[in-house]
Specification:
The structure is a single chain. By secondary structure, this protein is an alpha+beta fold. It has a domain of 114 residues: 3-Layer(aba) Sandwich (Protein Transport Mog1p, Chain A), CATH 3.40.1000. A hairpin with a 2-residue loop joins strand 2 and strand 3. It is elongated. It starts with 5 loop residues before the first helix and ends with a helix. Keywords: Signal.
Length: 170
């Protein structure tokens, strides 16, 4: 026999051709690909309104850190900015400012507010959140991240935001 390994070479060659042909074959789109394509093309119901304020411009209105607290900015994007309030390296509260143009229902819930903080309507949301609506547009929220950070602590922190400056941002 002239080619003793001919079967092995032929088998390897055929296997390579088979792998090449199947790898180059186009795959049909999954159901997730179709949903992604549809949602990307929608113009209504987008997450952020086109005229929403840039999140970076909110940072100047957050209270400064004092009395052993540290303020750490954690997120800013169009229509939203967030900062953590830390004490001894532990998260005690989360502070956020959001433009309600992106979510009008957020502003609507303040219509029945019976409480005010710094002259603006305020709400207790559950047992861990307090929010204020500024100029019928900007929601300022403080969330407790530690059981020792109470509703009165949240209200005291909310009083330190620069609401006059935020109201002029419009």
């Amino acid at each position: 026999m002239i080619f003793p390994n001919a079967r092995r070479v032929l088998a390897a060659f055929l296997l390579s051709i088979l792998l090449f042909v199947t790898a180059c074959q186009a795959q049909s789109p999954s159901r997730f690909d179709e949903v992604q394509a549809n949602s990307s093309q929608q113009k209504s119901g987008q997450a952020v309104a086109k005229d929403a304020t840039q999140g970076g411009s909110f940072n100047q209105f957050f209270p400064t850190a004092s009395r052993g607290y540290e303020r750490v900015y954690t997120q800013e994007k169009k229509g939203f900015a967030e900062a953590k309030l830390k004490k001894d390296g532990k998260d005690v509260a989360l502070m956020a400012i959001s433009d309600t143009r992106s979510l009008p229902t957020a502003a609507a819930k303040f219509k029945n507010a019976t409480k005010e903080i710094a002259g603006y309507p305020a709400l207790e949301i559950g047992s861990t959140q307090t929010a204020v609506l500024v100029a019928d547009r900007y929601q300022v929220k403080v969330l407790s991240r530690d059981a020792l950070f109470t509703a009165s602590d949240r209200e005291a922190l909310l009083k330190q935001f620069d609401y006059q400056g935020l109201a002029k941002l419009q």
